[in-house]
Amino acid sequence: MTPAHIETGTIDPIALDWAKKAGYKAESGSLLLIPTDEGHLGGALFGLGTNPSEQPYITGKLARALPAGDWHIETAPLTANRLSLGFGLGSYRYDRYKSEKTSAPTLMIPRDADGADIKRQLAGVFLARDLINTPTNDMGPNELEAAFRGLAAHYKAEINVVSGDDLRQNFPLVHTVGRASADAPRLLELRWGKKGHRKITLVGKGVCFDTGGRHQAGVFDAADEEGHGRRGKRHGPRLDDHGRQAQGRSQGDHSCRRKLDLVQCLPPG
Predict the structure, then answer these.
(1) Is 72 exposed, middle or buried, given 0-12, 13-18 or 19+ CB atoms closer than 10 A?
(2) What is the pLDDT of residue 231?
(3) What letter does residue 211 receive in the DSSP assignment?
(4) Residue 165: CB atoms within 10 Å
(5) Rounded to an integer, what distance in angstroms lies between the CA atom of residue 133 and that of residue 111?
(6) How is the chain split among helix, strand and coil, in percent rounded to 5?
(7) In a domain, 125, yes or no
(8) Fewest CB within 10 A of the end CB: N or C in the chain?
(9) Cα separation, 140 vs 206, whole angstroms
């Protein structure tokens, strides 16, 4: 809701009365829980500010602020798609290493929203976040290839993998960068679409871990141009266009080809 809804009284009378008594102004991102006549939780008001279009996905805050339970939208000046997508983006949690999972609120997707498209977008974003948030010791070339194969299997895509010494002939630099790791370097290729459609090729770099390139960087072995020493770092895969490519967005007349090289850059010995 916006401040105008309070000023004009165009909301539920009980909620309006409670909002006025609480001094609620419907400021952007603000939340006010509304009780029933019996004192139970009856609903909530969520402020969108005076110009909701400036923050189309602000409803992501609801996924963190609302009490656990099943919720639905009564009225909103935002489109159903943006409202639902915003809530979904805010609901992301990385709890792989947590023994106890906390309860969270759920939101029913409105009937006038494109539920299938919203779920595809959220699946793509969540996949990218999971891959990025996983520590490098649990997301090396082997694990990233497993995720790649799982994605291909889900969408019935063709996959090809070139790894280890087989890279020497056509991809010698990929082999050189990753050969010192216990996880062999590899090149993954995924094909998805129909023959005869226009082709799109996406090429990514999956450096799962990088010591800083001491044995590749020449004069920059010990320090960068400002004199700061280099340290080991984790790049993670370049997840360009992860939402559309990874989650099988409506392909139209396009055929996608995805190539991703996976390495761990480690010093020899």
Answers:
(1) exposed
(2) 37
(3) -
(4) 10
(5) 33
(6) 35, 20, 45
(7) no
(8) C
(9) 9
